[in-house]
Write a structure and sequence with these properties.
4 helices, 3-stranded parallel beta sheet, globular, Rossmann fold, alpha/beta
Length: 126
Amino acid sequence: MVVANPDFVTVEARALRVMPGTLAATYEKLGGEVKWMGKPGEIIYKSAMSMVGVDAADCIAVGDSLHHDIKGANIAGISSAFITGGIHAAELGLSKFGETAADPSVHSLAAKYEAYPTYVLPSFTW
C-alpha cells in the first residue's frame, strides 16, 4: 500500500473524520507493507523548500497535528506553529473555537507525541 496522505484524522464540522493514515496503520498491523509518503517525512518539507528556493530558516509549518505537522517540522529543522483548536482540541480540554489551551496541557501533549512547536496558536483564520 502506498499512502500519499498519512493523516490519521481531520476535523470536519468540529468532528473528527478517519483519514487514509488510519487505514494504512491498520493494514500495517495486519502484516501488510506500507510506503508512507507525506508528513512527518522530511522529504516533503525539503521538496517544498527546494521548489520555492528557500532555506529552513525562512520557513514555518502551520498545522493542527502534533504527530504529522509539528513532528515533521521538527524533523526538517523548521519552525512550527501548532493550532490547538484542531484535531487535538478535545485532548487539550478545549470546547469552543478560539479558546486558548493551558500551557501545561500543551507541553504534556507535545511530550506525548515527541513533537515540539515553536509557537502555539488557538486558531488559524484569515
